Amino acid sequence: MPDDFETMWSSLAPVGRSASSGGYFRQPFLSAERELASWFEEQARARGLTVERDGVGNLVAWWGVSTGSTDHAGAVVTGSHLDSVLDGGAYDGPLGVVSALAALDLLVSRGFSPSRPLGVSVFVEEEGSRFGLACLGSRLATGAVSWSRAKELQDRDGVYFADAVASAGLPGSSDSSLLDGVATFVELHVEQGRDLVDRDAPVGVASGIWPHGRYRYEFRGRADHAGTTRMEDRADPMLTYAMTALAANKQARLSGERATFGRLEVTPNSTNSVPSGVTAWLDARASSPSSLEELVGAIERQASERASRDETLLIVTAESVSGAVSFSPELASRLADRRGWPVIPTAAGHDAGILSAAGIPTAMLFVRNPTGVSHSPYETASVQDCLAGVVALADVLGELAGDPS
After folding, report:
1. Do the annotations mark residue 369 as ligand-binding?
2. Structural domain containing residue 315
3. How many other β-carbons are positioned within 10 Å of the β-carbon of residue 102?
């Protein structure tokens, strides 16, 4: 018998969890994430679903599609991801996968039979925590990123994406039919904020995703002795970086947007040396494309001005930029209006945004997060709200995949 929601959740809880922080380390193609992928396939087969995998490990478990068939015409797909950020929370991603399986169970218990293929998906490397490009699996599945580009991406240890894929026993791929024929995608996700808390609502519908980007800032200076080099004789890139981080904070606060330097690499990273180089990654998000452009431009201008004074060199590279996503307003209102669910925006990126940009009508459901904290061991959701999310998702899937008559 397939496991129920709470049993599935309990079985996932220990996988990839840090004993010291309580956070999760489920990076793509490493042991914890691969264990979860195997767990998903076992759960899918226990339900009699047909599992399909592409060349990079994206999965869809199909109800109503026979083994070997690639006919997904009119399909409705739900699901999310199983990887995490470094030291991340339990709910970001896995909640959508577990809820999808539980929603199918609920539909079965209601005697529902889909009139079109119904699938549960798991996309790889959604967070970008290992190879730096968020939603990489769904970008490959939709053709938004080519295999020739993706295979050259490297992790922090210099491992190429192609080699990581091969180490997992996967062939790699430049083409995918995994999403051919998909007519609608619905992703359930824990809310990464407090909007639903403020509205006193357990479930909400997403209106869209803010545009956002990741930018690599390389500050180059001159290594020197920390004791013998006078302050006025230094070309210290750490000073340029420090001012840039403060400038990013100020510009984001003034504009009501988001700017975060969350990753830093220092060379030579020695206590008693002036560094020769600092590389920092800026995550910037804004309510509109023009606002994002203005925010990133203001930060870069201030950084360049400071570099000139510090006699350092600044190189800025946009590693990934995702435009604004507006989910299907017709679908959002159809799901929300008669159920009384609020429709809210999000500043977090999701696979649903990639599929929407690829032309697939897409919707998202959010489950209330009582603290609003995410990408952290303190991310949480109550069992009661999670089960409400399962019911909500089952209702939506039943409506979308049922007999239109």
Report:
1. no
2. 212-322
3. 25
Residues 295 and 343 in one domain: no
353 and 389: one domain? yes
Show the low-confidence residues of the chain (pLDDT under 70): 1, 66-70, 174-175, 404-405
The answer to whether 212 is annotated as binding is no
Q: Is 163 annotated as a binding residue?
A: no
Residue at a domain's end among 300, 322, 344: 322
pTM recorded for the entire structure? 0.89
Tell whether residue 285 is among the known ligand binding residues.
yes
Going 123 to 126 to 130 to 132, the CA torsion angle's sign is: positive
Distances (CA, A) of 146 to 119, 125, 173, 275: 24, 15, 9, 37
Is 359 within 8 Å of 38 (Cβ atoms)? no
Q: Is residue 175 annotated as involved in ligand binding?
A: no
pLDDT digits (tens, 9 = 90+) for 14-59: 999 999 999 999 999 999 999 999 999 999 999 999 999 999 999 9
Is residue 234 marked as binding?
A: no
Tell me, what CATH number does 180's domain have? Answer: 3.40.630.10
CA distances from 112 to 25, 217, 402 (A): 37, 53, 8
How much is the pLDDT for 38?
A: 98
Determine contact, residues 353/66, Cβ cutoff 8 Å: no
294 marked ligand binding residue = no
